[in-house]
Design a protein that fits this description.
This protein has about 220 residues and is α/β, with parallel strands linked by helices. The chain is about 35% helix and about 10% strand. It has helices at about 10-15, 85-90, 105-110, 135-140, 160-225; strands at about 1-5, 20-25, 50, 70-75, 95, 120, 145-150.
Length: about 220
């Protein structure tokens, strides 16, 4: 997977040569110009993940058409409406993060019902979350949703696949370390047993030598008599 990651400005995106091969693009904290991000075009036709956090967007009207986009990060911008264009621009979205925007009512997010594949929506720190029965009404409005703000209808937290993979990786490392420790302990035990056997052999040889010496002395005494 090719990933272009810049947190300074979108100028880097404009310099990407093989845009059709890029699957992840991170443009957090760059600055947009009249709702446009320089270099972000529909040439990124294989793009599956796009992050434009805190770029000063007031709408999504100027997003390029990205048919394969699945995850879109738009948090900490100034978007207050115009979400109906997402169904046209990014028809296959499964995850949408609008946290920290200026979304105040349910009618603003109603156009998202056209995103039939949308499974996860985040609206943290938006005024709409202060409405009565906010969660219940959003799930009714967008029946295709599985998770809202990280939780399903039964308030069960959404699994974090990346975190789980990381934890599994740690477990694997620990298992490897335990295995290495066991091997080392086994080697140490073998070495100790070998040393003990050598000591026993040496002591046995010394005892045999002593017995031989004693025997020679006894023979000499018998001859003297």
């Amino acid at each position: 997977m090719i990933e272009v990651n810049t947190t300074l400005c979108s100028w880097h995106a404009a310099k990407v040569r093989n845009r059709s091969a890029v699957k992840e693009l991170v443009l957090d904290n760059c600055r947009s110009n009249e709702g446009k991000i320089e270099g972000l075009t529909d040439e990124f036709e294989e793009l599956e993940f796009l992050s434009t956090i805190n770029v000063g967007l007031t709408s999504v009207a100027n997003l390029p058409k990205l048919n394969k986009l699945k995850k879109l990060e738009l948090s900490d911008n100034r978007i207050s409406g115009g979400l109906e264009v997402l169904a046209e621009k990014c028809p296959n979205l499964t995850h949408l993060n609008l946290s920290g925007n200026k979304i105040k009512d349910l009618s603003t997010i109603e156009p998202l019902k056209k995103l039939e594949s949308l499974k996860s929506l985040d609206l943290f720190n938006c005024e709409v979350t202060n409405l009565n029965d906010y969660r219940e009404n959003v799930f009714k409005l967008l029946p295709q949703l599985t998770y809202l703000d990280g939780y399903d209808k039964e308030d069960k937290e959404a699994p974090d696949s990346d975190a789980e993979a990381y934890v599994e990786g740690l477990d694997d490392d620990e298992d490897d370390e335990d295995g290495d420790e066991d091997e080392e302990e086994g080697e140490e035990e073998d070495e100790e047993e070998g040393e003990e056997e050598e000591e026993e052999d040496i002591s046995g040889e010394e005892e045999e030598e002593e017995e031989l010496n004693d025997g020679e002395v006894d023979d000499e005494e018998d001859i003297g008599k």
